[in-house]
């Protein structure tokens, strides 16, 4: 029987209004008081569902040796906390890890509170279902014999699959580490041991060692892990397993000429379906130098000491193994230190890298970003479509915060915009967030004639009206067209007009309306203009913009 997934996440709480320069809203910050009275100190793990709901495992300021960790939902509500009672009378002793899959399922690994001196008792919850705990038997191939669970550790989930690190024990008392894959695709729970200490690595590359590092799993069951390999009786080399095949083995030729893999620190991994993955680790050059590298499905996107692919104004700094993530659509995300701070990048299957966030340049609620924290594992989570990113950053002043960054939420609508008196068409873009619950969106028009007045128009319908109203431009809004006449503004010497769009109060001919989730709203700015050659005054329209409300 399928587990009862979809442990409910709360709706996002409204955030303070964003400044036009803000990269997005702050979701949770160090020093913030949670609903149970605890104060956030450190972010340990985070995740985000496809609909933008997020959760985080945090450590708090509770005194040492007392309950301190909690799973926090949107708005600071506490879902789980150490010391909290569970059904059956047990209490949570320690929260170890948390994962959010694209559908919104929260999976957790925890230890029960036990008397002093008693053995550890671990549990894995997939949603609200207790999937595995200490003492449970584990069957199947790749085992040295009948085994039971001793301890559970990290979890990654992507329904109908999940991945967990475990310490198992044989009937004779021998203990060993293993990665377990849970498979619910057939309608019932199937547990498979995909890697374990002492198991031969495919391809004759020795056996799995005793150190397990990271694992990632996709919703088609494909996975990528990093773990130690005991090739010569020692546990000092690392290999990755991708769907059962040994890859990126230490000492094997690297992706750059004259390099071999040398995993000086445990690699960072992320996984989408099929052959898509993100892998970050270090290479050894022929001169002995160790340089960090990031691969997205085989493409080299960052190499320590080189210019950053897609953003050549940056030189990659001391990379090590960067924080990475990947959407279900195969978009790779990675954090990179540079010579002038740090950046968050995206690399979609199109091969065109995108700069999403830059320290010292971008702000959140008016506070500049000091660092995107590229060295922090577990500080990056993305939705399945890759449009929303929750990431940990350090703000100027030394405060760490979880922030929301959105990409590809606005799009150009078909519209043959005509050049204005500057010689080019007016541009239009969206800043902020299109989540209805956040309600912080600005539409900015640029490349306008200097010191020209204009206002924003909006509609849910498309059209094409040449020389609308006697203008020199083309109107691309149809149906009921609203006008932001209360925000008529001058473009000033820079040729820019910014309009605040309140998604709960959008102007229409019959009054103001609230947007609904799933609606697409179209925007275009009308502005005064002049006729080339000193002709009579005229007006024009910018290009068109579409925004999907979420």
The overall average pLDDT, rounded, is 88
Distance between the termini: 32 Å
Shape: elongated
- Spans of at least 5 consecutive residues whose pLDDT stays below 50 are 1-20
**Derived structural class:** mainly beta
Could you describe the 3D structure shown?
- The structure is a single chain.
- The chain is an all-beta fold.
- It is 0% helix and 50% strand.
- The protein has no helices and 49 strands.
- Strands 1, 2, 31, 32, 33, 34 and 35 form a seven-stranded mixed β-sheet that branches.
- A hairpin with a 3-residue loop joins strand 34 and strand 35.
- The two termini are 32 Å apart.
- Residues 1-20 have low confidence and may be disordered.
List keywords for this structure.
550 residues, mainly beta, seven-stranded antiparallel beta sheet, elongated
Q: Topology, pairings included?
A:
Elements: E1 22-24, E2 26-29, E3 40-48, E4 54-60, E5 69-73, E6 78-81, E7 92-100, E8 106-112, E9 122-126, E10 129-133, E11 137-138, E12 147-158, E13 161-170, E14 175-183, E15 190-196, E16 207-217, E17 223-230, E18 237-242, E19 245-247, E20 259-261, E21 268-271, E22 277-285, E23 290-296, E24 299-303, E25 307-308, E26 311-315, E27 324-326, E28 332-338, E29 341-347, E30 354-358, E31 363-364, E32 367-371, E33 380-382, E34 388-395, E35 399-406, E36 410-413, E37 427-432, E38 441-446, E39 453-459, E40 461-466, E41 474-478, E42 482-483, E43 489-490, E44 497-501, E45 506-508, E46 511-513, E47 520-529, E48 538-541, E49 544-548
């Amino acid at each position: 029987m399928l587990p009862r997934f979809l442990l409910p996440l709360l709706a996002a709480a409204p955030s303070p209004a964003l400044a036009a320069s803000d990269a997005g809203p702050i979701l949770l910050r160090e020093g913030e008081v949670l609903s149970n009275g605890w104060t956030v100190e450190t972010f340990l793990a985070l995740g985000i569902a496809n609909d933008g709901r997020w959760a985080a495992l945090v450590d708090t300021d509770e005194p040492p040796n007392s309950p301190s960790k909690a799973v926090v939902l949107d708005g600071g509500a506490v879902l789980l906390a150490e010391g909290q009672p569970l059904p059956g009378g047990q209490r949570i002793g320690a929260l170890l890890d948390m994962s959010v899959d694209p559908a919104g399922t929260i999976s957790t690994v925890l230890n029960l509170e036990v008397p002093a001196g008693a053995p550890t008792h671990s549990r894995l919850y997939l949603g609200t279902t207790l999937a595995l705990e200490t003492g449970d038997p584990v069957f199947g191939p790749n085992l040295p014999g009948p085994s039971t669970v001793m301890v559970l550790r990290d979890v990654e989930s992507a329904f109908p699959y999940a991945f967990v690190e475990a310490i198992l024990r044989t009937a004779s008392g021998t203990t060993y580490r293993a990665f377990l894959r849970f498979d619910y695709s057939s309608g019932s729970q199937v547990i498979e041991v995909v890697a374990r200490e002492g198991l031969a690595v495919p391809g004759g590359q020795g056996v799995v060692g005793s150190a397990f590092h990271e694992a990632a799993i996709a919703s088609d069951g494909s996975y990528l892990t990093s773990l130690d390999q005991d090739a010569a009786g020692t546990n000092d080399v690392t290999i990755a397993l991708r769907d059962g095949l040994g890859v990126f083995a230490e000492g094997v030729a690297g992706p750059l000429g004259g390099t071999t893999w040398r995993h000086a620190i445990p690699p960072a991994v992320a996984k989408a379906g099929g052959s898509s993955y993100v892998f970050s680790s270090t290479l050894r050059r022929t001169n002995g130098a160790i340089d960090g590298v990031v691969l997205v499905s085989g493409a080299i996107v960052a190499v320590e000491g080189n210019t950053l692919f897609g953003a050549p104004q940056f030189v990659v700094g001391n990379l090590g193994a960067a924080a990475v993530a990947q959407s279900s659509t195969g978009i790779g995300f990675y954090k990179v230190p540079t010579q002038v701070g740090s950046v968050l990048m995206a690399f979609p299957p199109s091969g065109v890298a995108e700069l999403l966030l830059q320290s010292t340049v971008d702000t959140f609620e008016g506070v500049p970003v000091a660092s995107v924290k590229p060295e922090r594992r577990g500080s990056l989570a993305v939705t399945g479509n890759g449009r929303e990113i929750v990431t940990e950053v350090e703000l100027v002043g030394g405060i760490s915060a979880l922030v929301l960054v959105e990409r590809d939420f606005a799009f150009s609508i078909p519209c043959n915009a005509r050049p204005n008196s500057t010689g080019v068409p007016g541009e239009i873009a969206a800043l902020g967030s299109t989540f209805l619950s956040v309600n912080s969106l600005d539409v900015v028009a640029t490349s306008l004639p200097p010191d020209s007045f204009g206002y924003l128009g909006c509609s849910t319908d498309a059209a094409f009206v040449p020389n609308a109203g006697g203008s020199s431009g083309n109107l691309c809004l149809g149906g009921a067209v609203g006008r932001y006449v209360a925000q008529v503004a001058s473009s000033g010497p820079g040729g820019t007009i910014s309009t605040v769009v309140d998604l709960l109060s959008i102007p229409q001919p019959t009054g103001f309306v609230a947007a609904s989730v799933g609606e697409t709203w179209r925007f275009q700015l009308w502005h005064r203009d002049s006729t080339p050659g000193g002709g009579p005054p005229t007006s024009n329209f910018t290009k068109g913009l579409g925004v999907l409300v979420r």
